[in-house]
Amino acid sequence: MNTMLRKSVLGVAGLVFAGGVIGGPVGAALDTPAYAAPGSPVAAVQAEKPDAGKLMPHGVQGAQSRIPLDAEQTANVKAIIEATKKAGMDERAAVVAIATSLQESKLENLGHLGDRNDHDSQGLFQQRPSSGWGTVEQITDPQYSTTAFLKGLKQVDGWQDMPLTEAAQTVQVSAYPDHYAQWEKQAADLVTEHWTS
Prior knowledge:
This protein starts with a helix and ends with a helix. By secondary structure, it is mainly α. The chain has helices at residues 3-23, 25-31, 41-48, 52-55, 71-86, 91-105, 136-139, 142-154, 164-172, 184-194.
């Protein structure tokens, strides 16, 4: 083989080898985020990002509903998430709480609605003072009403393993127990969006 041909073959082989290495594990490593030391802000954000499988462990049940949220409703989502964290509960609890509030009040902190009121139900979760949920002032406070809902949820054995509608219904005792399920996807999306904000 002449020298020129041999150099060409070796050059092509070298390019193929280099391309394989760069395109292989080294190339893949170039696309991954840099290592974040434990305790660093990057590691904290990565650790707090909700696990999609944990948010909807049973998938969704039935057709899903979705509504656009205004600033007040978004603030209520954030209040529910904050209360969930303060209660020491995880993202799944926030999904259950937000889906429940979507069904009960469309995430609006409702006062007494007169003739349209369901008995004396008020607030994000349509809790009733006459049923022991608290005073009107308490149940129309998003932090208080969420904490009250979560306290009820904690008392449900195995709520973490239940479908959302069953967990919510056990706390709320609604006349329409299956209606909570339609909000699971939007609730999970809201938790994903706001859990770390």
